[in-house]
Amino acid sequence: MGSRRYRAKIAAFCFILPALLVALLLLLYPVISSVFYSFTSKHLIKADYDFVGLKNYIDVLTDADFWRSFFTNIKWTVASLAGQILVGFTAALALERIKHWRSFYRTILIIPWAFPSIVIALSWKWILNGVSGFLPNFLVNIGLFEQAPQFLSSGALVFPTMVFINIWFGAPLIMVNVLSALQTVPKDQYEAAQLDGASPLQSFIHITIPHIRVVVGLLVVLRTIWIFNSFDMIYLITGGGPAGLTETVPIYAYNIGWGLKMLGRSSAVTVLLLIFLLIVCFMYFKLLDQWEKEAG
Amino acid sequence: MKRTKRTLGLMLAMLMLLLAFAGCGPNGADTTQPPADNTGTPATQPAGEQKLEGEITFWHSFTQGPRLETIQAAADQFMADNPGVKINIETFSWADFYTKWTTGLASGNVPDMSSALPTQVVEMIDADAILPLDDLIDRIGRDKFYEKALVEMTAEDGHCYGVTLYSNTEAMWYRKDLMEKYDLEIPETWEEMYECAKIITEGENGAVYGAAFPMGTNDMLATRWLHLYVRSAGETLITEDGKANLTSPTAIDGINYWVKVYQDCSPADSINYNTLDEATMYYQGKLAFDFNTGFHISGVQENSPDLMEYIDCAPIPRVNEGDPAVGCETNNTPLVIWKNSEHPEICEAFIEYFYEPERYVDFLLSVPVGMMPAIQGVTDNEKYQSNEIVQQFQHADEVLNQMLPGSTAIGMEYGPRPEAGLLTSQHVIEEMFQDIILNGTPVEEAAQAAEDELNELFETVG
User: Fold this and answer.
1) What is the CA radius of gyration of chain B?
2) For the segment A6-39, what is each residue's pLDDT rounded down to a tens digit?
3) Partner B contacted by A252 (CB < 8 A)
4) What is the per-residue pLDDT for B204?
5) What is the tens place of the pLDDT at every residue in A59-79?
6) Residues A245, A219: one domain?
7) Most buried pick, A5, A72, B143, B242, via CB within 10 A?
């Protein structure tokens, strides 16, 4: 009997072994090597390196550019996330009420997700080009501006412009998920609330939100990580400029790792990023836990 | 059920974090140990004295159709002449090539031979990744090569590690029709160029700009344009002792000059321009002046053939009237043979074969006037001279050839050095200009800060 159970355990282990190996090789190894290299003088193309203790961390934490990019990253994440949730939520609520052609509208609105980042980045660069771009010239032609607004080169406009692009890109994902969650809310609760004389706003606050907030909360966690680590869009459109106004921590880390080839120091940046995001996730999950308890 | 959902959520978040983190960190590959059986001694087997057998991989970054085709045709012919040889050609953009070789070095995942940029050759030598090619150069004819093209590839050990395939040199490109329209003379000094650019900018009222000073931090064009100004006065951005030079009176004048050009003659967007943005503006006919190589001709021909009759180039302007016109920047694009190669003799034989006039001239003519020969005397060839573009742009060809001897890649004026790579890859000068323009930082203060930053960076490779 015991032997049969043992054999079953071995078989089970064999089944999960491929997935386990993939996880270990593709996820844990790079992470562990990053942590290891963050304590060394590792160079991208030189073979030799030494153990340098906390030097990389001290260098990073005393670098004014790191803190500038860190706070830019916080602003970028908060503004993008808030905008994506607002737009995504509104679009989902609107779609919920549409009876006909819902799938068509949902497909149209999800289009930004269908394109690779490089296509989106180059398209926006073209649309916003200060000389020949469609949008600046359109705004001049309709008389809103006398001169073409410089969306990507003005110090005042470049950051909001990048946030706007990120909202445009990310809101559809929120919309689809919120829409799915909205469809799970029991309709009889709305009918009961209506009979009791509740206003639409009260129904939304007391019925809709409690039902979907766990899903939205989880979405917020995932999007926070995603937006905080986003690299391609900013790099392709502004390269972190002008004057470092859109340089986030991933771009800072990239410049150190691939520009200066100081992989040890670049690894230290990514480890710090991981620690920060783990703290943020921990706080989010505490909140989610509390919501679940309240719901229970 | 709730606990399961929560655990699932937690696991998903952790997975995302790990995935994101895995993408940020090193690629996990250890770096660049050459194979133990390779001693790094120069490849000395003379080509043609033995039957060649084996397979080699050739990475190059000549992604444009005609160049790619001429190389493939040469490889096909070489394989036909040497039935035991197989040449696998793989093509990457310059950016992808850099990523490929830097990450592939550790695992031995590098080609047998490849193209390279001069600053990359310095890094490859530093990483002990490529072979010296002195014997091959001697067989082709050392005295045929331009001296600077060899000096740039020569390491401290006295060996030459790259064979220059072609060169291109920077010149001032202008629009003949606009010069005529505004009755302007071809500028010979920087101040004259500014005056012309300003007149055209004001006269064209946004339809055409005099110039577009490009400062994008994902490229190195602001460094190049400042370098042109400084070199035209006989100075360099990296001094002989390997220090950054942004605070000399000439460098400060140069910074002030380009800020003035940006403010009075450039589209505001050029603060973010990279090479493609800049070239596109010129191809669209929206720029009167630009600084580029003979590659501009093929770019205009491909994108706006109507402009072909209106473009020409002149020597880089000088600071003072009467100063001699000097070449300021030449990029020598070499071929290198990797230490990991099991068949360096095939690589050498193929390179030697490629330099034979019937193939080499075809290669040069795939971008006429754009790719200038690395070896002297080749352009006397009748086939070269009878090319339609060469004939049409004879003046441009003369100007470019006048500027070629004596100039080097940016920062390589005193020989190959890793600091040159940092000067152009770290975008410190681009950030300095953006800081001056967007934040109003005084020029001297910004220049001093950028110089200090560069010197700090230089210490990492010193």
Assistant:
1) 24
2) 888 888 889 999 988 888 888 888 889 899 999 9
3) no
4) 93
5) 999 999 999 999 999 999 999
6) yes
7) A72
Interface touch B272/A132, C-beta < 8 Å: no
Query: Which positions 95-134 of A are in contact with B (Cβ < 8 Å)?
Result: 129-132
In chain A, what residues touch B429 (CB-CB under 8 Å)? none
Look up tokens 């003046």; give the residue. B395
Nearest-CA distance from A159 to chain B in Å? 13
Tokens of A252: 């800072």
Examine residue A3 and state whether it is found in any structural domain, yes or no: yes
Inter-chain contacts counted by CB atoms under 8 A, chains A and B: 171
What pLDDT was estimated at residue B10?
A: 53
* A144, A57: one domain: yes
Q: Based on the domain organization, do A13 and A75 belong to the same domain? A: no
Give the distance from residue A289's alpha carbon to the nearest chain B alpha carbon, in angstroms. 8
Residues A95 and A11 in one domain: no
Other C-beta atoms lying within 10 Å of the C-beta of residue B86: 14
A160: how many CB neighbours lie within 10 A of its CB?
A: 12
Residue A284 structural domain? 41-295
Q: How far is CA B208 from CA A67, A114, B95, B186, B391, in A?
A: 41, 37, 31, 18, 28
A108-121 pLDDT tens trace: 888 888 888 899 99
Secondary-structure breakdown of chain B: helix, strand, coil percentages, each rounded to the nearest 5: 50, 15, 35
B126 touches chain A (CB under 8 A): yes
Task: Determine the residue of chain B that is closest to A29 in CA distance.
Answer: B28
Gap between the Cα atoms of A14 and A8, Å rounded: 10
With a cut of 70, say whether residue A295 has pLDDT above it.
no
Domains of chain B: 54-169+331-403 (3.40.190.10), 171-328+426-459 (3.40.190.10)
Residue A107 lies in a domain: yes
Together in a domain, A3 and A67: no
DSSP element (H, E) containing B85 = strand B85-91
In a domain, A104, yes or no: yes
pLDDT along chain B (462 residues), means of 10: 52 52 41 37 48 91 84 94 93 84 82 91 88 93 83 88 92 95 95 96 92 90 96 93 94 97 94 89 93 92 92 94 84 92 94 90 90 84 88 93 84 86 90 93 96 90 69
Measured distance CA(A114)–CA(A176) in Å, rounded: 14
Contact A131 B269 (CB under 8 A): yes
Whether residue A48 lies inside any domain: the answer is yes
The pLDDT of residue B103: 82
Q: How far is A235 from chain B (nearest CA, A)?
A: 8
Same domain, A108 and A225: yes
- Does A238 contact B at CB distance below 8 Å? yes
Q: What is the CATH number of the domain that holds A139?
A: 1.10.3720.10
Place of tokens 């441009």: B396
pLDDT digits (tens, 9 = 90+) for A75-106: 999 999 999 999 998 988 888 888 788 788 87
Query: Is A243:B435 a contact under the CB 8 Å cutoff?
Result: yes
Per the structure, the count of domains in chain A is 2
